[in-house]
Amino acid sequence: MMKIKHDKDNRRYMLVVSEGFDDNAVVLRYRQPDAGSIHFTSTFTPQNLRGQGLARKVVEHALDEADSQGLEVTASCWYVEKILQERKQQASA
């Protein structure tokens, strides 16, 4: 089972598919401008792991965690923005 790790020191969420290899990790990077907000800046999925929905799992996990902490969420990453828009559409449906 793959586990998503929150690496607070390096401001990233990671889903490590194979221990010890950075090229086998899906990464979501963020900034935290202040205690009440989080800004997601980028996602990265290695070529060999693309198309499996792994980045979505990491983003959904991070967004759920941000929601549970009451953080204001912003994003400059297109993929995170796409998922945020989907969540808004689902909430208004």
Structure description:
The chain is an alpha+beta fold. The chain has a single domain (4-92), classed as Gcn5-related N-acetyltransferase (GNAT) (Aminopeptidase), CATH 3.40.630.30. 32% of the residues lie in helices and 30% in strands. It has two helices and five strands. It has helices spanning 54-68, 78-92, and strands at residues 4-7, 12-16, 25-31, 37-44, 72-75. It has a five-stranded mixed sheet, with helices on one face. Strand 4 (37-44), helix 1 and strand 5 (72-75) form a beta-alpha-beta unit. The longest helix has 15 residues, at 54-68. The model has no long low-confidence stretch (mean pLDDT 92).
Which fold does the CATH topology refer to? Aminopeptidase
Structural class: alpha+beta
Question: What are the segments in which pLDDT stays under 50 over at least 5 consecutive residues?
Answer: none
Helix content: 25-40%
Q: Gyration radius, to the nearest Å?
A: 13 Å
Oligomeric organization of the protein chains: single chain
- What is the mean predicted local confidence, pLDDT? 92
CATH-assigned homologous superfamily? Gcn5-related N-acetyltransferase (GNAT)
How is the topology of this model organized?
Blueprint: E1 4-7, E2 12-16, E3 25-31, E4 37-44, H1 54-68, E5 72-75, H2 78-92
Parallel strand pairs: 4-5
Antiparallel strand pairs: 1-2, 2-3, 3-4
Can you tag this structure with a few keywords?
single chain; 93 residues; alpha+beta; Aminopeptidase; 5-stranded mixed sheet; 2 helices; 5 strands; 32% helix; 30% strand; globular
State the gist of this model.
This protein has helices at 54-68, 78-92, and strands at residues 4-7, 12-16, 25-31, 37-44, 72-75.
